[in-house]
UniProtKB/TrEMBL annotation:
The keyword 4Fe-4S applies. GO terms for biological process: iron-sulfur cluster assembly. It comes from Pardalotus punctatus. This is NUBP2 factor. PROSITE patterns: MRP. InterPro entries: Mrp-like_CS, Mrp/NBP35_ATP-bd, P-loop_NTPase, YlxH/NBP35. Keywords: 4Fe-4S, ATP-binding, Iron, Iron-sulfur, Metal-binding, Nucleotide-binding. It comes from the Eukaryota.
Amino acid sequence: TLAERTNLAGVRHILLVLSGKGGVGKSTISTELALALRNTGKRVGILDVDLCGPSIPRMLRVQDSAVHQCDSGWVPVFVGQDKAIALMSIGFLLERPDDAVVWRGPKKNALIKQFVTDVAWGDLDFLIVDTPPGTSDEHISTVEALRPYQLLGAILVTTPQ
């Protein structure tokens, strides 16, 4: 649809951050990468699709922010004094951010698709997608929703053990 094309039309590169297991530092890598890119003058967005553990809002100290609607969808939360990082996370949509999200596959997949298509990112140099741990349905949904766009690639986060 037109909305799908326009919301990601201004995003030059999309980068998925993945891992085979939890607790390896995906959210930390995503956050640090976004901050490093911002410090080089890039316009950066983070899409936090880690539905069960949305930690990026807390890492960037915006966990009390709210997401608003506009004509083209959700307006992401802009981080920092320079507002140079746009962030969308399930954490902004929960009543209490520490609540565990227990959803079945179809509902999770629908939310991921909505996150991909319905966030008004504007012009970004990089969109960093922080994924849940593992190799689940959510990853397939995320990649399929992003398939029409030019994916830059993926960063696979591992630990020695």
